Amino acid sequence: MTRPSVTSRREVLRRGIGAAAGAIATEFLPGATAMAQDRTREVAGATSKDAGAIDAHVHVWTPDTAKYPLAAGYRREEMKPPSFTPRELLAHARPCGVARVVLVQMSFYGFDNSYLLDSMRAFPGVFSGIAVIDDGGRDPADEMRRLKSQGVRGFRIYPRNLSVDRWLAAPGMEAMWQCGGRERLAMCCLVNPDALAAIDAMCEKHPETPVVIDHCGRIGTDGEIRDRDVAQLCRLARHKHTAVKASAFYALGKKKAPYTDLAPMIRRLFDAFGPGRLMWATDCPYQVQEGHAYRDSIELVRSRLDFLSDADRQWLLQRAAERVFFL
Prior knowledge:
The chain is an alpha/beta fold. It has helices at 9-14, 17-23, 25-28, 32-46, 86-93, 114-122, 140-148, 171-183, 196-205, 227-235, 263-273, 294-303, 310-325; strands at 53-58, 98-104, 127-131, 152-157, 186-189, 211-213, 242-246, 278-280.
């Protein structure tokens, strides 16, 4: 695998279900009985539309690198924290009223989505998934359909080692966008503001393809939220199937709770996209490191944005992500 040019996540941001679940019980929850009890509670909590919030962007990984090997070029030392399993994630999420989560394939595993898929199988109904595949592979559209059959609803794409004016031009990327439009599979874009123009052009070319921009387009990772960048992101709202994740608050603007300095940008995104195409997410485990807390992230939307109605909050905290990743 060709490794992305960045070397760490922090640098990126700053610049048969029951049988399958039982087979991996010792990994995800110690003891098959404990897993069965927890799974029953998770499924019961996730079947109601009013079950709770959806965290639309979380990464999980395991210290068991024998069963789930790291991709070429990655080392165990880069796994910080060393472990962030589904159970560890839910220990943060559940007390904050989060019922479901969208898991995003972690770069440590490259194109091997095994841990993502096993996590989804272990907690049926609780997790949806965003996978990573090789757009330069033999048939990326076929791989997308295969993963869709296992519950994946989106695919993370980013420039990797290509320039922002070339990364979407490859034949494999074209095939992915075409398949996304046909199969209702989201292109989930991890980009800086300088890549938004290329995404805009692809949205014009593929108007039926769902597109989700991660982490507010990473506007403000250097501490400055520029009007031109926000305007460029808002411009994407004219494409009816585009959405934005209001997420990774720990990495944007002042990077300090309660994150209210981000409110003006979120208000502009809300005005442009509406509540139905703006979804909250944490980007855990990074939201729970270096003095940041899970609750501070959700509380920005739940209680600190006075321009939101209760119905708006339900969309941002649940229904927008549900529509793209769970229905």
